Amino acid sequence: MNWFTRVRTSLGFGSERKSTEKDLWIKCSSCQEMLFVQEYEDNLNVCPRCEHHGRIGADRRLELLLDPGFELLPQPKVEEDPLKFKDSKKYIDRLKAARAANPHEDAFTVGSGAIEGTPAVIGVQDFHFMGGSMGMAVGQAFCNGAERALERKCAYVVVTAAGGARMQEGILSLMQMPRATVMTRRLKAAGLPYIVVLTDPTTGGVTASYAMLGDVHIAEPGALIGFAGQRVIQDTIREQLPEGFQRAEYLHKHGMVDMVVPRSELKATLARVLDYLQPRIAA
To answer: CA-to-CA distance for 280 and 208, rounded, in angstroms?
Structure first.
């Protein structure tokens, strides 16, 4: 380090510039183009060059889908470390780190309000919180959202994004799969629509339960949707998988997803679907 650089560093010159540059730019994970952060966020975290749909947090998602004035349901209180799990790090420490980096206590947040005037409850899974993994808190939050929809006699919309069940909670995390399934059956019995919006990625136990039980399945473009990983499947069947396998467009082509909708059109699409289903809600 030369004398000029040392002086600049000691006086604080340059550090502000580095921070500003970092805050101003973001690299698209798909096309690798450098984008202005403001332009990227204004475009709903969708790359304006290649239209890759980046991940967004729960609060932003609820703001995009619900009309202003919606209510957030309180986060459920569950036993936080029932198995006293520890790998390279204690589970309780992982939870603390995740909570410090995110606005909510766990990976599933529920908002109650309306979509373009039609009453609806929306549950959002946030991949930023421990990969959106499904543990007891996520399962309870999902059930609470369904209960609120039953109380209000309105549709329940769930936006999924998860790496699967939370291994630190073992069998207790897997028990959330049948619990969530029971709630979807209760919604069906009450004649209330259950709509799933599949975002990148939706995998594992979440895909094996409530993510694929919707009356209508909508996916964002390019979203990875599946149970096991491609490498596991390929090694098991010993065959090369087709191009685009487990992506939203592939699932739509093969009948597992009803429609693929860009993020900018998602709220209007949900409103239209709810409008179609409104007579069933009234009944």
So the answer is: 27
Return the structure tokens found at 57.
């947090």
Helix (H) or strand (E) holding 141, with range, is helix 136-152
Q: What is the pTM of this model?
A: 0.89
Q: Are residues 39 and 119 in the same domain?
A: no
Return the exposure string of 255-282: e unless at least 16 CB atoms fall within 10 Å of the residue's CB, then b: eebbebbebeebbebbbebbeebeeebe
The answer to whether residues 64 and 112 touch, using CB atoms and an 8 Å cutoff, is no
Domain of 18?
A: 1-52
Q: Answer yes or no: do 237 and 104 share one domain.
A: yes
pLDDT class of 156 with cuts at 50, 70, 90: very high
Residue 10 structure tokens: 């000691």
DSSP string, 189-258: HTT--EEEEEEEEE-HHHHTTGGG--SEEEE-TT-BB-SS-HHHHHHHHTSPPPTTTTBHHHHHHTTS-S
240 CB contacts (<8 Å, ≥6 apart)? 234
Cα(99)–Cα(169) distance, rounded to whole angstroms?
A: 17
Q: What are phi and psi of 203, to 5 degrees?
A: -140, 175
pLDDT at 279 > cutoff 90: no
Angle at 164 between CA 163 and CA 169, to 5 degrees: 120
Q: How many domains, the chain?
A: 2
Residue 2's pLDDT band (cuts 50, 70, 90) = low
Is residue 268 domain-shared with residue 137, that is, in the same domain? yes
In a 3-state reduction of DSSP, which class is residue 261? Answer: coil
Per-residue buried b or exposed e for 55-89, using 16+ beta carbons within 10 Å of the residue's own CB:
bbbbbebbeebbeeebeebebbebeeeeeebeeee
